[in-house]
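Why run this: before we spend reagent on co-expression, it is cheaper to look at a predicted model of the complex and decide which construct boundaries make sense. The entries below are exactly what would go into the expression plan.
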Amino acid sequence: MSPKLRVAASIALKEARHILRDPLTLAMALGMPVILVTLFGFIIDFHYKNISVSLFDHDKTPASRSFARSLGAANYFRVLPSEDARNPEHTLADNASFAALIINPGFGRDLDNPEDKPAIQLLLDGSDNAKTGIAMGYFQKAAALGLSAARGQRPPPESTPLSTRFLFNHELNSRWFIIPGLTVVICGLIGILLTALTVAREWENGSMEMLLSTPARPGAIIAGKLAPYLLLGFCGVAFVYAAARLVFGVPFCGSHALYALSCVLFLLAATAQGLFISIVTRQQQLAMQFAIVSGLLPSLLLSGFVFPVASMPEFFRYFTFILPPRWFMEISRGIFLKGSGLADLWPQLLMQALLCAVLIKLALKKFKTDLEP
Amino acid sequence: MNETPSVLVKNLTIRFGAFTAVDDISFSVGKGEIFGFLGANGAGKTTTIRALCGLLTPSSGEISVAGATPLEPELLKARIGYMSQRFTLYPDLTVDENLAFAGALRKMTPGQAKKRSEELLDFTGFSFGRAKLVRELPGGARQQVALAAAVLHDPQVIFLDEPTAGVSAQAREQFWALIRRMAKQDKTVFVTTHYMDEAEECGRIALMSAGKIIALDSPANLEKTAFKNPLYETLAPEGVNLAQEAKLSGAGHAEPAGLKWRVEVSNPAAWEKLCADKKLLPHPAKPTLEDVFLKLVGAGK
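The model came back. C-alpha cells follow.
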C-alpha cells in the first residue's frame, strides 16, 4: 500500500470506529432507511379504496337503488345509507363520509328519457385535494357503469375510441412509484447530513487542526473520512433495493451495473455537498440545519419524489436542473420500472456526472483555500 | 547554541482583515533550546505558532522551521510536532487507538508507533489502561496522551501551546521532565504557558503583547535588565492604595501581588518617607518573571 493510501485507510478506520461507537449516527444511518421504507411503503398510500359516500336517495325507484348498488360493487366506494332529512353537507362536515351522493326525485323516470340529464349530484370534500381528484376520477367511471345498470343494460362500449393502458406500472401502484424514489432520499440523508456532521465535528473539536498539522495530504484526509459514509450510503441503497424487491414486489427491469454507477455518482455528489457545508459552517448545529435545508428538503420536495417536476412553477422546474436528486430520481424510476438503459438515460447520467464534478471541485477548492496556506 | 537555527522568523506579520494579530516580529531559536512564549490571551502567541506549523499563511515575512519553509508544507509538517491548546484527541477512541492513529498520520508503521508510544507513556508516568477510551481519563492523563501523540514521530521542533493547562502539579513536573529530555536530545521545544514557574524553565523567553515581541532574553537576564532599581515587597495597612501613594510621592511604581505590594523604588528618599508615614515594613525582593511581565506589558500600553 502506498503511504498516501495507508493514511487514508487509517482515517477511514478511525471514522468507522466513530460511527460504530456513536449510537446516534448508527441509529440514523441504519434506522432511517427502515423508518422511511416502513413509512412510505406501508402507511402512505396514494391508492385510495373504500371511499365513503353517504347516499341520499330521494327517488327511491328500482333504478336509483340499482345505481347505488352498482356504485358500491367495486371496492372503490363504500355506500352508506343516510337519513333523508339530514343536510348532506353535514355528513361531510362531521367526517361521517368523504362524499355525499344525492339522487333527486325523477331519476328513475328520466332515465328512459335520454334527452334530460339524470338528476344526480355529488358533493366531495374539497379539503383534501389529492383524494378529491382521485375520487372524482373513480366516480365518473363508476357513474357511467351505474347508469347502464340502472337502465338494465350491459355496460356500454367505451364511448370514445380511446383505449388507455398504463405501461410500466399497470395498476398505478403508488408503492412502485415511491419505493425506488426512496433510494434518493436515503442516499441524500446519509451522504449530505452525516458527512456534514462528521467533518463539522472535527472542526468543532479542533482535531481538524491536528490532522492538518501532520504531513497527511488534505485529499487523503477527505478520502479517508468520506469512504465509510459512501459505504453506509450504499448499504442504505441495498436495503431499499431488497425491501423493494422482496417486500413490495417492485420489478427491477434495468441493469444493475448502470444503477450502481448512478448510485455512486449521486453518493459522491451528496458527500461533496456535505463536505462543502461542513467547511463553510464548521459547527455541527449549523451544518445540520444547512444540510436539511439544502439536502433533505430538495430530495423530498423538488426531486419529483412525490410532486412531479413537470407540474412545478416554471422557476422551480428549471431550478431542479441543478439538483442531483432530481436526475437520480428519474434514473432510479427509469431503471427499476421501465428497464431504461444507457441509451435512454445518458442525459440524466451526464447531468449527474457534471453536478458531481462541480460539487467535488467546489468542496476541494474551499477546503484547500481555507486550510492549505 | 548550534550555528543553524531551528526556527527562524524574520519580520513576520499576520493580519486578519484590518486586525494585525502579529506585528513584524523576528527571532531565531537554536537546536536543543526550550523557547518560551509568554503573553496575555490575544497577544498573538497562538497565531505565531499556527503560522510556524504551516496552518496559516503569513501576510508578510519569512519563516523557516527545521530547515523547511511553509512553501514545502509536507516537509515542514513532517519535521514538527504540534500540540494545540484545544484538546485534539478523539474521546471515543482508546488511548492505543489514538496513538496508533497519530502514528499512521505520521507514516510510521504500527510496530514503530506502538513501541514509541509505550516508551513515552512510561516516561511521563501514565498510569491508566491503554485500552481505556480517552473520554474516561482525567484531564491530566489526557494531556499526557496528547503530548505523546504530538511527539510520537520524534520531531525536530515541537510546538506546545499551553500544554499543561488543567494538569496537576505532579503531572506537570513529569511533563517538564519529558520536555527537558527532548531538549537534551537536541530537539527544539517551543512552548507557551500561563504558569510563571514553567516560564522559568525555559532557556529564553519572548514576551508578546499586542502582536509584538516586547522582550526576548533568558529569564535571569530579563529579571536583571527589567528592573534597574531595587524592588521591595511590603504589606500595607488596610485602605492604603500603595500604587497611588507611590506615584504621588514620587517614590516609584507599586503593583499589587496577592495580599502584598511589590514596589520598584526610583527615589529612595521619597520611599523612606513613605514607609515612615504609612508605617510600612518593606523587605528587599528579587524580581520574578511575573514582575517582569507586568512591568513590560504595562509599559507597552
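Chain A touches chain B through 26 residues (CB under 8 Å). The radius of gyration of chain A is 28 Å. Bring this page to Monday's planning discussion.
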